Amino acid sequence: MSFFEKQFKLQENGTNVRTEIYAGLTTFMTMAYILIVNPNILSASGMDAGALLTATAVASALGTLCMAFFANYPFALAPGMGLNAYFAFTVVLTYGYSWQTALTAVFIEGIIFIILSAVNVREAIFNAIPYNLKKSTSVGIGLFIAFIGMQNAGIIVNNDATLVGLGNVKSVPVALALIGTLITVFLVIKKVRGALLFGIIITYILGIICQLAGIYVVDPANGVYSLLPSGIVSAPPSIAPIFGKLDFSNVFSLDFLVIIFSFLFVDLFDTLGTLIGVSSKAGFLDKDGKLPKIKGALMADAVATTAGAVLGTSTVTTFVESASGVADGGRTGLTSFTAGILFLVALIFSPIISAIPSFATTPALITVGLFMMEQVVEINFKDYTEGFPAFIGITMMVVAYSISEGLVFSVISYVVLKAVSGRSKELNPVIVIIALLFLVKLLVG
Q1: What share of the chain is helix, strand, coil (3-state, %, to 5)?
Q2: Residues 247 and 346 in one domain
Q3: What average pLDDT does this structure show over 134-155?
Q4: Cβ of 21: how many Cβ atoms within 10 Å?
Q5: In whole angstroms, what is the distance from residue 288 CA to residue 129 CA?
Q6: What is the dihedral sign for C-alpha 42, 43, 44, 45?
Q7: What is the sign, positive or negative, of the torsion defined by CA atoms of 352, 355, 359, 365?
Q8: Residue at which a domain ends, from 358, 379, 400
Q9: Per-residue pLDDT tens for 63-104?
Q10: SS (H, E, C) 273-324
Q11: What is the pLDDT of residue 115?
Q12: Which of 362, 379, 396 is the C-terminal boundary of a domain?
């Protein structure tokens, strides 16, 4: 029996080494942008960008490997989008705290999550969310992922009149993203193993051809960068400028407690929403809608957040892009193990990783959105006490650009509609408490 079979129980989960490695590659490719984006965002707080690249890669690898060995699930972790922006632009630039203090808040958040995971509080919250809301969360995340992909490629852009609008379909990146999406879906139709990964690679190669032919014109001033890597390998930047730089001097201030609560809230429900959505798509939920081994998955998230703060990065969380690997057949921790190792490898091959553009990963994200949309038929829309909360949750995830806000509106409306319809017996105490906390969150901001 091979190490991989013994450790990850491949046959038991109906998979094999090749499928899992393909899936891990796909997950990594759809997440690799975090190695570029996270340092760009956090460096606005005054942190060293080079050190942030190393911290991002190491924290992502650590969290993803923890997921592989703690829970044997194909989920990957990295510093969360939204949470990193809150760290840099709100906590540091708006509230005026140092980035060292912000890292301390993330560190304490991680410690709290380790405790909550150990005593099963986070698991109880997961299990309390009704079946229909679990399914709608998966659908909402699918649309959210597709929307992110379209934004990344410029298919959808900001519009002053209508907030969002169609981008310039004549531009090369948009055209390549759309062509790549059709190619990816075609590969899926033909049941090509690793279709999402091949879609990314083919789209990237088409981009390189366009650049060499002079069709894709490099213009860094307008955000159009060369698709040709500047090199093959390079030494990882030193992590020393940000490693272990925690500052506990403001721990007992009221504002600091508010900051910790904000990190806790967003990370808790973003993670739960992601686990619900991706697990539902992968078929991991049991007949009661519970996720076996969820304690290990939540502990991986908590340990990664705590360690990530020491390394010098914002909250580490489970990524919705994990759905791309699941869609490519990933079913065990070997998928996340592969992705985790690739995050470390990326430190050496960062010139190549950095050259892969957003439009090349867009086809995978849009296709994953299609896969996750399949579960909409399992939602009971005929019973409006079930259907409306599902509908509003799906909608808010996209229009509010937040998985957690989608859960907020779906849970509150679920509890209210059940109560006013004389069906309060269908409510469990935990979901009622969650709804009350959500309501307080909405009212106090």
Answers
A1: 70, 5, 30
A2: yes
A3: 87
A4: 20
A5: 11
A6: positive
A7: positive
A8: 379
A9: 999 999 999 999 999 998 767 877 888 788 877 889 999 999
A10: HHHHHHHHHHCCCCCCCCCCCHHHHHHHHHHHHHHHHHHCCCCEEECCCHHH
A11: 95
A12: 379
Note whether 330 and 433 are same-domain residues.
no
Quote the pLDDT of residue 1.
55
373 burial via Cβ count (<10 Å: 0-12, 13-18, 19+): middle
- CA 362, 71, 108: angle at the middle one, nearest 5? 85
What sign has the CA pseudo-torsion 267, 268, 270, 271?
positive
Q: Which domain holds residue 47?
A: 3-379
How many separate domains does the chain show? 2
User: Amino acid letter at 252?
Assistant: F
How many CB atoms sit inside 10 A of residue 7's CB? 16
First to last CA, the chain: 54
What φ, ψ does residue 140 adopt, rounded to 5°?
Answer: -60, -40
Rounded Cα distance between 117 and 217, Å, is 50
DSSP state for residue 253 in the 8-state scheme: S
Give the whole-angstrom CA distance, residue 389 versus residue 393. 6
Range list of β-strands (E), 13-135: 77-79
Look up tokens 């921790």; give the residue. Answer: 333
Residue type, 46: G
Strand partners, 318: 77
Say whether both 364 and 261 belong to one domain.
yes
pLDDT grade, residue 170 (50/70/90)? very high
Least confident span in 12-21, 182-191, 195-204, 389-398: 195-204
Sequence-separated (6 or more) residues with CB below 8 Å from residue 37: 81
For residue 355, name the pLDDT band (cuts at 50, 70, 90): confident
Contact 361, 29 (CB under 8 A): yes
Degrees, nearest 5: CA angle 90-100-82: 35
The mean pLDDT of the chain is: 89
Express each pLDDT in 289-302 by its tens digit.
888 889 999 999 99
Same domain, 191 and 165: yes
